[in-house]
Write the structure tokens for this entry.
Amino acid sequence: MKVYSDPNKYNNTSTVVTLGMFDGVHLGHKQLLSKVVTTARNIDARSVVVTFWPHPRLVLGKNAEDLKFITTLDEKIALLEKEGIDDLILLPFNLELAALSAKEFIEQVLIAKFGMQHLIMGYNHRFGKDRIDDYSVYQSIANENQFGISKVEAVKVGSVNVSSTVVRNAIETGDVVLAKALLSYTFSLTGNVVSGQQLGRTIGFPTANIEPNDSHKIIPQTGVYACRLLVKGNKYDGMLNVGIKPTVSSKTKQTIEVHIFNFSDDIYSEEVVIEFVDRVRNEQKFESVDALKAQLKIDEQTVKKLLS
């Protein structure tokens, strides 16, 4: 897959295009992307994903501080490449683009700059300053400009339409098992091992303190999780705590700390990937450190069973 961070360098004249943020590249996205790839092959065109970067809310200032992503840009690029897309165009979002209607954006950008011959839309996709949600309007624009257009219907898991919003809600409530079902892969977080208070060592459960690489990356709800950790090319089982460690610390800053089973290497400053497999329990304050240690031993056995 070719990635274009400068759209002005894109010069293909026959493309099948889909447009969106594709946060998470979930099951619904995968169905849409499959349609893009197949349609492009059928008309001997390039399969193209156009996505905005930075996110429009960061530019427009619409609650940008609350913006959380399932996937970072690097993660999204890797996932899109797995779906067989030919070209990814990172379109810089600015106020000039924000002022374009859907019709203007299609004509001035997708057709004039990216050679679009066919547009494939998700069932609930809207774009342009007018945010049109009537598919027949997009069909009329297609007829007027003589390009093909298709709509891909929703993918359901159970009774739920898969969407990035539903995935984010699952992660935010700690339901990483549901998130995996919606994504078709285990939700993960990449970060660096940083220095912590080293309190875990004093109670027999040394931990690696993880600082996420992206401040906008969504963090699962506080609690104890079964996890796997990828470090230096190897994968290890472990249990992880998201929270403030109320039994042993008076600080209120949330941390992410993982106890890696059967592991004693020094990995300070190493970049690691955490896979969230399942949630074990809520974070809680214990009456004593001994009570915490007893619970951690129970947690360890629970986590090992989940990971076995």
